[in-house]
Design brief:
Blueprint: E1 4-11, H1 16-25, E2 29-31, E3 34-40, E4 45-51, E5 56-62, H2 67-70, E6 75-78, E7 80-81, E8 84-85, H3 90-102, E9 106-109, E10 117-120, E11 129-135, E12 138-145, E13 150-155, E14 161-163, E15 170-173, E16 177-180
Antiparallel strand pairs: 1-5, 1-6, 2-5, 3-4, 7-8, 9-13, 10-11, 10-14, 11-12, 12-13, 15-16
């Protein structure tokens, strides 16, 4: 029995969609999460689909049989430690899939390591876990793909959010805002 897991593939910049198509045509299950972005040209503004993780896509593969992946046009390497590929957590793939499927406004986000872990209990992201942030008076859920050291942020309604555990020095206040205990009101 083969051990088929999700792996992150580093690909040439702007080759993400072409490489994903080639992998799909080779019979691999691939996942290229995209988001919508408005771009200005000299004569118009156009909405385009861009990768949430520029230069990367995900592929289900058997790490013992990497050659067909590595010889695919656009593929640079399978992300790992040294020459050993490291699989992406299934829960991280599922969280990113949920964000893309929700059609909420998502965007690439700097990798987040520390912060309050929360779960979304309502809306199209019900069951997704990530880090809760309040950025420019907008509530965001940040989901990270650890192996890539990249994150995705999506705007959420603060009423959907439930903390997974209380962080020392923080309290959940009225209006669904995190506040440092003892901080000025």
């Amino acid at each position: 029995m083969t051990n088929v897991l999700w792996f992150a593939l580093q690909v040439k910049q702007r080759y993400e969609q072409l490489t994903a198509t080639i992998l799909r045509n080779k019979g691999y299950e691939e996942f290229l999460p995209l988001y919508k972005c408005r771009r200005r040209w000299s004569d118009r503004i156009k909405q385009v689909d861009l990768p949430l993780f520029p230069g990367y896509l995900f592929c289900k593969l058997d790490s013992a049989n990497r050659l067909p992946i590595l010889t695919t046009p656009g593929v640079v390497l399978i992300v790992g430690i040294g020459k050993i590929p490291v699989p992406v957590e299934e829960s991280e793939i599922a969280a990113v899939r949920s964000i893309v499927a929700s059609q909420l406004a998502a965007q690439p986000w700097p990798f987040v390591r520390a912060g309050q872990q929360v779960r979304i209990d309502a809306g199209p992201l019900r069951g997704v876990e990530g880090v809760f942030l309040n950025h420019k008076n907008q509530c965001r859920l940040v989901v990270s793909v650890t192996i890539l050291q990249r994150s995705v942020a999506v705007e959420v309604d603060s009423d959907w959010v439930t903390p997974l555990k209380m962080e020392p020095g923080l309290a959940w206040t009225e209006g669904s805002r995190w506040r440092a205990i003892g901080a000025a009101h």
